[in-house]
């Protein structure tokens, strides 16, 4: 029998006189295809078998995952997804798609002929399928831009792993660049501050601002992961931009999974403690999520609200993610422009060719 080819077939060769295309692959974490137990189980299986996400030895982890966690967690998670699902589908997928399109438009308005596609690390469209599509469209230079402001091995590095796996089966590799972090990027901080200030103008200013970031196991910090420090730096810069003294804001971590110790303080217990201490109103923002998703719309806006109010708080305000805020799209565009420097866009190449 013929052996399976090691490398995927290459797309049809392009005209050698055509300028090389530049592309951006905008990568987010992922989402189930549907808010059903079966779809959620497929998604969680892919997510929780990534060794970047769970560093427990495979021999101990996989039987627990398949025998206990997936059967029990999938129906519960599906119900949570159903509570925030839209007629168009997953909020995370909708916002990621929209941000990619708006980014391409922003760059195009400034003379950059750059293709922008979005991909999901887990679920669809996959990173591999979108890299194939970009190559087929003529891209020979690709900037990989994860939608993670703060670097973590569990997220940013996993995107790089997926790109590397695609490279292993590709004969003619494009030039690749990666954005690792933008936690302290001034336009990103400015966009976050503008989001909060706009909320305050409409709803009044609360007595306490809580900045909730996605959690990771504390062990990863002890092993050298910079994520926790970068979350704290984002919060510090944002508070400084808003002119907030230390007593008027808190930094917490959400989405704890399992029994291991994760980054502290945890979000929900902090909300309860604030309410019991007499804080009547709390405003909550999730700076690490560029687009609203399960972790913001259900875990914070629903569960976090319930925790604060049942503990005696009076008013809970969830401040939506950056989503399609023009200041955020501009921040994303400026970030992309800096990382694309030295790669002349097709418009620039064509202008140079015409001049010659």
From TrEMBL:
Its EC number is 4.98.1.1. One of its GO terms (biological process) is heme biosynthetic process. The keyword Lyase applies. It is found in: Cytoplasm. InterPro entries: Ferrochelatase (IPR001015), Ferrochelatase_AS (IPR019772), Ferrochelatase_C (IPR033644), Ferrochelatase_N (IPR033659). Pathway: Porphyrin-containing compound metabolism; protoheme biosynthesis; protoheme from protoporphyrin-IX: step 1/1. Fe(2+) binds at residues 214, 295. GO terms for cellular component: cytoplasm. It holds the Pfam family Ferrochelatase. It catalyses: Fe-coproporphyrin III + 2 H(+) = coproporphyrin III + Fe(2+); heme b + 2 H(+) = protoporphyrin IX + Fe(2+). GO terms for molecular function: ferrochelatase activity; metal ion binding. Keywords: Cytoplasm, Heme biosynthesis, Iron, Lyase, Metal-binding, Porphyrin biosynthesis. Belongs to the ferrochelatase family. Catalyzes the ferrous insertion into protoporphyrin IX. HAMAP family: Ferrochelatase (MF_00323). This is Ferrochelatase. It comes from Ramlibacter tataouinensis. The gene is hemH.
């Amino acid at each position: 029998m013929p052996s399976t080819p090691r490398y995927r077939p290459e797309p049809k060769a392009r005209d050698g006189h055509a300028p090389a295309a530049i592309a951006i692959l905008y990568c987010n974490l992922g989402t189930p295809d549907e808010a059903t137990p079966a779809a959620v189980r497929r998604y969680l299986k892919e997510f929780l078998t990534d060794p970047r996400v769970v560093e427990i030895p495979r021999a101990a982890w996989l039987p627990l995952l398949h025998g206990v966690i997936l059967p029990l967690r999938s129906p519960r998670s599906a119900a949570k997804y159903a509570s925030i699902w839209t007629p168009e589908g997953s909020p995370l997928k909708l916002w990621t798609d929209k941000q990619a399109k708006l980014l391409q438009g922003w760059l195009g308005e400034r003379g950059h002929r750059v293709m922008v596609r979005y991909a999901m690390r887990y679920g669809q469209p996959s990173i591999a399928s979108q890299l194939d599509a970009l190559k087929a469209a003529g891209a020979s230079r690709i900037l990989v831009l994860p939608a993670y402001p703060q670097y973590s091995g569990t997220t940013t590095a996993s995107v790089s792993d997926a790109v590397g796996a695609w490279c292993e089966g590709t004969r003619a590799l494009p030039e690749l660049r990666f954005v690792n972090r933008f936690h302290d990027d001034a336009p990103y901080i400015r966009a976050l501050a503008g989001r909060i200030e706009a909320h305050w103008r409409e709803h009044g200013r609360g007595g306490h601002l809580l900045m909730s970031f996605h959690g990771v196991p504390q062990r990863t910090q002890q092993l050298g992961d910079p994520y926790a420090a970068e979350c704290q730096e984002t919060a510090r810069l944002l508070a400084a931009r808003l002119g907030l003294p230390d007593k008027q804001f808190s930094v917490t971590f959400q989405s704890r999974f399992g029994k291991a110790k994760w980054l502290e303080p945890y979000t929900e217990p902090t909300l309860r403690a604030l309410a019991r201490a007499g804080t009547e109103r709390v405003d909550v923002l999730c700076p690490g999520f560029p687009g609203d998703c399960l972790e913001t719309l259900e875990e914070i806006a629903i569960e976090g609200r319930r925790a604060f109010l049942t503990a005696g708080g009076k008013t809970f305000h969830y401040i939506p993610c950056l989503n399609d805020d023009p200041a955020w799209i501009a921040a994303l565009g400026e970030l992309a422009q800096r990382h694309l420097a030295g790669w002349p866009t097709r418009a620039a190449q064509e202008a140079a060719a015409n001049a010659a």
